[in-house]
Amino acid sequence: MTPEPEQSERQHESQHQPESQRQPESQRQPESAGEPEVARHAESMVRRDDKGGFPAQQQDPPGLTSRMHPVPDHGEDTYIGHGRLEGLRALITGGDSGIGRAVAIAFAREGADVAIGYLPDEQSDAEETLGWVERAGRKGVLVPGDLVDRETCRRVVAQAVGGLGGLDILVNNAGYHWDRGGDGIEGLQPEHVERVLRTNLHAVLWLCQAASPHLGTGASIITTTSIQAYDPSPALLDYAATKAALNNLTVNLAAALGPRGIRVNAVAPGPIWTPLQPATRGTDTIETFGADTPLGRAGQPAEVAPAYVFLASPADASYVSGTVLGVTGGKATL
């Protein structure tokens, strides 16, 4: 990601460029105005003490971006597109906030139309993400739904296909975990385990099943897994198990859909500052969140989105399938 020039420099360059050489709308960066505190460089997002995390805070699930302190960086002022997804159509589940919002912004600036899947309780976040997609000059579609059953997954895909006129990219990004109980097997609660399994694993199966008939040669499926698949935390025992299963599913789906020219990959993020963290973690873990990585800090959604762009791009990743790409701050994915 390359930071944009100062405003005066952009205006000067625009005034002296021929129209044919000016940057397409989908590749320009919107101006930020009246936003809450947002650090545009990841290093300035961390606490200036030896903890490496964020100020103590909690929200009720599912969590909202506007209530976070500081608000995550989704690339609003930094991501510059280069037309790598021009004319493609993408459905991003969990696309309202966090990694999903960063991917939606990046995809739109790369030239893709975007359907945003989200929980109904996250309407305000979804509408803000839609605004970023539309400001990039691309079509955006809002598709609400709690992906805990097959019928909802099928409806979300159908509405995305109908709204976009087809589908070329499916990003399975919706996820859930709970880290406010006891550690290990003793801390598991049936209602949380059920939601973790349905949201993280079952939904991916049903979404892929529903999307598959609409995907043609060159299409791409990308699933968000996690560093937890390789380095599980006792407090996230059930979540880590679903992410390990998704790694396996990625390889299996790549083999199953490869003969049709459909690529299937995954991104395994490390600790990333998203609304899921204050909505599901205790305040003590927020204060040290990400400090255990070799880089000593959590990542920002904007630092993960380019991995999805690479995997979705027919030009950049045409021979990449069955791969899990780690974006972990240095933690090993072995």
Automatic annotation (TrEMBL):
UniProt-listed Pfam families: adh_short_C2
Biased composition (Basic and acidic residues): 7-16, 37-52, 70-80
Keywords, comma-separated and alphabetical: Oxidoreductase
Biased composition regions of type Low complexity, renumbered to the chain: 17-32
Nucleus found in the keyword field: no
One Gene Ontology MF term: oxidoreductase activity, acting on CH-OH group of donors
Annotated signal peptide: none
Protein family according to the UniProt entry: Belongs to the short-chain dehydrogenases/reductases (SDR) family.
Name of the protein: Oxidoreductase
Organism expressing this protein natively: Intrasporangium oryzae NRRL B-24470
